[in-house]
Every structure is written in C-alpha cells, then in structure tokens.
Amino acid sequence: MEVAVERPNWAPGDIDLERPSVARVYDYWLGGAHNFAADRAVGQRALEVMPELRDVILNHRAFLRRVVRHLLGAGVRQFLDLGSGIPTVGNVHEIAQGTDPAAKVVYVDVDPVAVAHSRSLLNGNGRVAVLQADVRDPAAVLGSPEVGGLLDFDEPIAVLMIALLHFVSDEEDPLGIIGGYRDRLAPGSHLAISHAGYEADEETGSYRAVRSVYDRDVTPMTYRNEAEFTRLFDGFDLVEPGVVRLPVWRPESPDDLNGSRTPFPAFGALGRKA
Ligand SMILES: C[S@@+](CC[C@H](N)C(=O)[O-])C[C@H]1O[C@@H](n2cnc3c(N)ncnc32)[C@H](O)[C@@H]1O
After folding, report:
1. Ligand 1 atom 4: residue of nearest CA
2. What Rg do the C-alpha atoms of the chain give, in angstroms?
3. Which residues line ligand 1 (CB under 6 A)?
4. Is the pLDDT of residue 4 over 60?
5. For the whole model, what pTM was predicted?
6. Is the CB of residue 271 less than 8 Å from the CB of residue 238?
7. What is the dihedral of CA 193, 132, 29, 261, to 10 degrees?
8. Which of 70, 98, 100, 169 has the most CB atoms lying inside 10 A of its own CB?
9. How many A from CA of 49 to the centre of ligand 1?
C-alpha cells in the first residue's frame, strides 16, 4: 500500500516530495525543518559513508559568514547570492544588514522550497529580493526585475557561489557561466566560491561514496582539484590568502579551525575584479 507523504503548508504544490533535492538534503544536514523523508534518507546514507560530512557542510557556512564580513569591511554593500539555499541561521542579509541596514541582497535559487521559504522570511524587507532561476543562465538572472530593481551595477557587487559549482559539470561550462556575471560587474566587485574537492591522491573511499550517493539519488556532482578550482577565478585577482582549504580561509577563532582535518575536502577563495 502506498503511504501518502504529508504536504506541509510551506511546501509549494508542484514539488515532488518523494524526489530528494539538493537544497532540502542540505537543510537536513544543517538541522533545518524544511525537508522530507526522501531528503533525510539520502542525507543519512551520505552521513553513513562519510560521518564527517556535516562538519564539511558547516565549514561552507562558516566560510560564507567570514567572507561576507570581510567584504563588508572592504566596503561592499551589494550581494548576489547564487544557489542561496533554504534560509538558515546566519544568512547573508542578516550579516550584511547587521553591519549596514542599507546593504542589499538578492537571493537566487532554482529550488521552489528554498525560494518560497526565503520569500516568506523576507516579506517586508525592501532591500532583499528573492529570485527563482537557474544560475547557469546569467543573462536571465541579471536581466530579471529582482536583480535589476535592487542592485546597482555601477557599484561593486559581491557574487557568492557557496557550495554551488560542484553541481555544475565541466560540460555545462562553469567558466563561461562565471564570465557571464563577471563581465557585467564594476571594478571592485568580488567573487566568492566554496567548492567540494581535493587532489587526486587524497581521494578516499568515503569521498567517492558520497559522490555516488549524490550521483544516483540527487544530482551529479563534480569534485575539482586546486588547479581546476583556481581557474574559476579567471579575470579576478585572488584576495589573500588565495586558494585554500575552507577552514584556513581567514579563520576568526580557534573554532573555525575545528574542521581542519587533512586533507580537508573543500576549497574556498575570494577574487576581486580590478
Ligand atoms: C549545497 S546548497 C548550498 C546553499 C547555500 N549556498 C549555503 O551555502 O548554505 C546548493 C544550493 O544550490 C542550488 N542550486 C544548485 N544548482 C542550481 C542552479 N543551476 N541554479 C540555481 N540554484 C542551484 C540548490 O537548490 C541548493 O539550494
């Protein structure tokens, strides 16, 4: 007998609750409440093959927070958060507007739950917009009323791609996609990326197993090594300390280094457009 999956009132009517989504599995790992049994099952399977995965995820979030604080210190007040996910604690607008209430943020995600939940949280915040779009189409994102209505392209903008590009294969041309954004940015704009990856000789069975779980049950993943990751910053000058493993990107406290198991399977960097 088929058991109907309960559809909570925050779930848009047109989503398939039985099909795991990247955004909702991530929400499960982060301890959020916007996920379903299918998402939790995949998330659990991945944790079984790589128990330290949750720590890796937390490091992506911590990198995001540190990078946004750094950008605020560098005077950036506009943020385009691509693949922003289901809102959780420490979102970009909370950090940015905590420093400067005039800071502006556009969140972009393809996932209907991420977009619906972001919109419901942000209702009434006139300096934040939420766009449902595929980030692989920069012209559509940049040409949208949400982006055009809020961001000023004559001023610096920080484009954030946090834990996103490992879902974009080489065939989908990540360099071309990034170029589509970069070419519209004013000098002084930035690009921040965090990305799953490591060198070939560091690959362990558990890293391979997580990718297999994802490839089979959610969406294909592409891990990139340091050289491949660094190429994503074509047209940007890397900000110190350059390309590093996430925990050692400008750590602010000993806690930031907690995840620094070696080899840490994710890179982070910030680039600046001259
Ligand atoms: C692993 S989550 C990271 C979320 C957030 N950046 C963070 O660090 O917490 C990746 C997000 O990217 C979104 N995503 C993946 N591919 C996308 C695409 N082509 N266009 C827009 N969003 C995408 C997923 O829906 C998901 O919310």
Report:
1. 85
2. 18
3. 22-23, 26, 60-61, 64, 83-85, 109-111, 114, 134-136, 162-164, 167
4. no
5. 0.96
6. yes
7. 0
8. 70
9. 22
Q: Is residue 129 part of a domain?
A: yes
- C-alpha 117/C-alpha 133 separation (Å) is 15
In whole angstroms, what is the distance from residue 154 CA to residue 3 CA?
54
Pocket test for ligand 1, best of 19, 42, 59, 164 (most atoms within 8 A of CB): 164
Burial 46-63, CB ≥16 within 10 A → b, else e: bbebbeebbebbbbbbbb
CA 177 to centroid of ligand 1, rounded, Å:
15
Please tell me the distance between residue 84's alpha carbon and the centre of ligand 1 in angstroms: 6
Give the tens place of pLDDT for each residue, 167-205: 999 999 999 999 999 999 999 999 999 999 999 999 999
Q: Which CATH number covers residue 114?
A: 3.40.50.150
Domain count for the chain: 1
Element (H, E) at 51: none
What domain range includes position 67? Answer: 53-272
